[in-house]
Amino acid sequence: MTWDQMQELLWPATAETFQMVGVATVATILLGLPLGLLLVLTDKGGALQNLPVNRVIGAVVNIGRSLPFIILMVALQTFTKSLVGTTIGWQAAAVPLTIGAIPFFARLVETSVREVDGGLLEAVHAMGGGTWTAIRKVLLPESLPALVSSATTTVIALIGFSAMAGTVGGGGLGTLAVNYGYQRFETTFMWVIVAELVVIVMIIQLISDFIVRRLADRGSFGGTTRLLRSRRTEITEEEEELALPH
Amino acid sequence: MITTKDLTKVYRSRGREVTALDGVDLHVREGEVYGVVGTSGAGKSTLIRCVNMLERPTSGSIVVDGLDLTTLPGQEHRAGRDLRTARRRIGMVFQHFNLLSSRTVQQNIELPLEIVGLDRTQRRRKAAELLDLVGLADKARSYPGQLSGGQKQRVGIARALAGDPKVLLSDEATSALDPETTRSILALLRDLNRQLGLTVLLITHEMDVIKSVCDSAALMRGGKVVESGELTELLATENSELARELFPLGEFGHGRPGNTVLEITFQGDTSAQPFVSQLARTYQIDINILGAAVEHISGRMVGRMRVELPGVHQENVVPIGFLREQGLQVDVLNEANGALA
Ligand SMILES: Nc1ncnc2c1ncn2[C@@H]1O[C@H](COP(=O)(O)OP(=O)(O)O)[C@@H](O)[C@H]1O
Ligand SMILES: [Mg+2]
Questions:
Q1: Given CA atoms A8, A11, A14, A19 in this order, what sign does their dihedral have?
Q2: B54 lines ligand 1 (CB under 6 A)
Q3: Is the CB of residue B296 less than 8 Å from the CB of residue B302?
């Protein structure tokens, strides 16, 4: 197999992996973040304290986390089919990936949010803020560095699971590795795929580390960088400065 | 401005009951700085947290600026709309500042204004004013992590003032600060109290804080207020524990057995009188001065002196009467051991 032949196969498969992981990541964050917050808020002493609800969510999350991914894929086939109309391809794989990642991410969110100093909540309540204010203005922004780390851990786990999904018809780099590396004994090609996955994971980790460091830096030095903060604010501030008469 | 009546708070945890407040009556007048002092566990934090209903009392009432907060539904993080509105008019500063590390100084001060729903321009203007007021105009774009403890507390104070409160609550606001910074923060509170007519209720475990800024004080022990009043009154009260703590002469000598030891407190113009020599001349007795100190307490000159008169208490009834007639406050200590008679 020549390098050109490999490339022709690699890029479409990489794109599929990215789409599969991308969709699953977005869906996981959208569903897992509220779930993680609920785990904290409904717990004892939380703003929405409701222990029965808390126990139920906790139990569901624990069961979700303990199910092996392969089993989940098979078990969810009917659900997947009703949702995306098929049980093969990256679109179909994204469904069990999301379902599998939500409890995982929700627990990470829970841990991150619990780290927020209770004094800050007390302060916002003393100012007359309610639960929603506390979530939006305190819990989420203050735990942002930890949430970014959690999301990264989840993305990397999803990449691993997406390769596994590929072995049972999920498409992407996993399917490629099985079809060529395993069934046609293209060992070199298989190692190329493995190397690509390793590089992807490393790049994601590096980017995440960079963002987390910048976010955490606000607390100590280099307060000038405000990544992920309202860019609109920065631009208008710059404009104001530019607009000053010289 | 703040009146609590028979305030009781009982914490129940795992079958055990802790009575943190046991029938507290407190009366803070408009425009004064009121200090509550007591050892750790006395119930001070519980008391101040009841004043803005971060803690709902088990029984009793709290009236702030004419509004009985105990009638409003909700507590701590589950406050109803009315209680949340009432809280916006009560500022609070904390021992550990409780600033959001993800926000700049300016954004921290804008937080309460966001809650009220002010627009960006108004928020900015108000934040700039407040930063000026606390002397941090150049730190607007810094993050709390880049500030010293004193600067952080100034931001905390500016934030507490954002809603134009009539009342400022302070729970050990200076306890995490060094003595010099403590002085500057207390001076700031004093200035704000005078400039804005702000009523300040502060909690502390340090007598020095009471001495330097408070008009009135209360001493708490075991969930009860054991003594309270204006400092000048307290100093004029015989055997006042607070006065003794505010103005300790403990390190001075306790005299010889068989003699009478007096503690004489004088305020304002009485300090000008040469009462010691008058006493010595009038009754022909030898007075031994064991110690004396003069201090400024809530803006007034106050002096205290410990003297030793020969003979037991009964022999000195007349000279003691003479001193009291001069407008001096006289406490008689037990012979030799320095304890109160
Ligand atoms: N949330 C709570 N649950 C149970 N007991 C508490 C709670 N908060 C305070 N206490 C108890 O109430 C008493 C008074 O505490 P606190 O008001 O913090 O005193 P202080 O501020 O004077 O040190 C202490 O015995 C403390 O252990
Ligand atoms: Mg306390």
A1: negative
A2: no
A3: yes
Q: Is the CB of B289 under 6 A from ligand 1?
A: no
The pLDDT-based confidence of B238 (bands split at 50, 70, 90) is confident
Q: Which residues pair with A98 in a beta bridge?
A: none
Give the angle subtended at the CA of B187 by the CAs of B184 and B193, to the nearest 5°.
Answer: 145
B283 lines ligand 1 (CB under 6 A): no
For B197-220, write each residue's pLDDT tens digit.
Answer: 999 999 999 888 998 899 999 999
In this complex, the residue of A119, A130, A215 whose CB is nearest that of residue B98 is A119
Give the pLDDT confidence score for residue A220 in this predicted structure. Answer: 52
Which residues of chain A lie closer than 8 angstroms to B163, CB-CB?
A: 127-128
Tell me the two tokens of residue B147. Answer: 């500030």
Q: Is residue B278 part of a domain?
A: yes
Out of 3.40.50.970, 1.10.3720.10, 1.10.260.40, 1.50.10.10, the CATH code matching A3-199 is 1.10.3720.10
pLDDT per residue over A194-240, tens digit each?
Answer: 999 999 999 999 999 999 998 887 755 433 344 444 434 444 444 44
Close Cβ partners of A242 (under 8 Å, ≥ 6 residues apart): none
Determine contact: A50 vs chain B, CB below 8 A: no
Q: Which of the four pLDDT bands, split at 50, 70 and 90, describes residue B249?
A: low
How many angstroms away from the CA of B73 is the closest CA of chain A? Answer: 13
Stretch 129-188 of chain B: residues touching chain A, C-beta under 8 Å: 141-146, 159, 162-163
Q: To 5 degrees, how large is the angle CA B314–CA B317–CA B322?
A: 165
Q: Which residue type does B65 have?
A: D
Taking the Cβ of residue B124 and every Cβ of chain A, the question of whether any pair is shorter than 8 Å is answered with no
**CB-side exposure of A45: number of CA atoms within 13 Å?**
5
What does the pLDDT average to over B140-152? 93
